[in-house]
Specification:
Blueprint (H helix, E strand, L loop, with lengths): L1 H13 L4 H22 L7 H8 L4 E3 L2 E5 L3 H9 L6 E8 L7 H17 L6 E8 L6 H4 L5 H6 L3 E6 L4 H7 L14 H11 L6 E6 L4
Parallel strand pairs: 3-4
Antiparallel strand pairs: 1-2, 2-3, 4-6, 5-6
Length: 215
């Protein structure tokens, strides 16, 4: 693992990327290694395809959030319908686990990402953020207080699609997926409320939205 990190560091240095960004981005290896250890009792990484993106300089952690330049037909259609025909940088937004989703820190991440990817020559002077996550499910706004960081985070996104078949919420909240939601161990208020929804037969799924603040 250490040798891999050093090889990646050389790539960062070659492209003039600050060491702070390298250090922040590489924390994802530790996060997924710990997830594996929690499941299997030993260190390892199962999400290797995702981790490879950080190693290949395709995903960067810039403060609280991670960003990945992407091509996205749904987002492009969203832009074209609104008459935005200029080249726009589309940044897929990822939320690393293990830290509070602090609203102010997220705003700093967005601003850093705009400057970082413009400087990298990813094309266009405008930036749109896209996020595909269970955290964008509007149902959460009815389960949490209006001042909750999750609610404030999702309020910045306009929903463009949803996939109720996905079970990311269960994976993130309970670290596993059960056929019978009554088996989930719930200790936090959110876990209890989500488990109740699942027991009632509701599906949380994933919602996909766009943040247009920097267009």
């Amino acid at each position: 693992m250490k040798e891999i990190s050093l090889d990646v560091k050389k790539k960062y240095q070659a492209e003039g990327i600050p060491e702070k960004i390298y250090v922040e981005t590489m924390t994802d290896l530790d996060v997924w290694a710990q997830v594996y250890k929690n499941e299997h009792g030993v260190l390892g990484i199962k999400e290797y395809k995702w981790v490879e993106k950080s190693l290949d300089l395709k995903v960067f952690k810039l403060g609280r959030l991670q960003f990945e330049p992407v091509k996205d037909n749904q987002v492009e259609e969203f832009l074209h319908v609104r008459g935005i025909l200029d080249e726009v940088i589309i940044l897929n937004t990822h939320i690393q686990s293990g830290e509070p989703l602090d609203f102010d820190l997220c705003q700093q991440s967005y601003e850093t990402a705009v400057e970082f990817f413009k400087a990298r020559g990813n094309g266009g002077e405008k930036v749109i953020f896209v996020c595909d996550s269970w955290l964008l499910n509007p149902k959460l706004a009815t389960l949490l207080s209006a001042n909750n960081n999750i609610v404030k985070f999702q309020q910045q996104y306009k929903i463009i699609s949803k996939d109720l078949s996905k079970r990311q919420a269960e994976e993130r909240l309970f670290q596993k997926v059960e056929d019978n939601p009554k088996l989930y161990k719930a200790t936090t208020s959110l876990q209890m409320k989500v488990r109740d929804c699942l027991i009632k037969g509701e599906r949380l799924g994933n919602y996909k939205g766009v943040n247009t603040k920097f267009l």
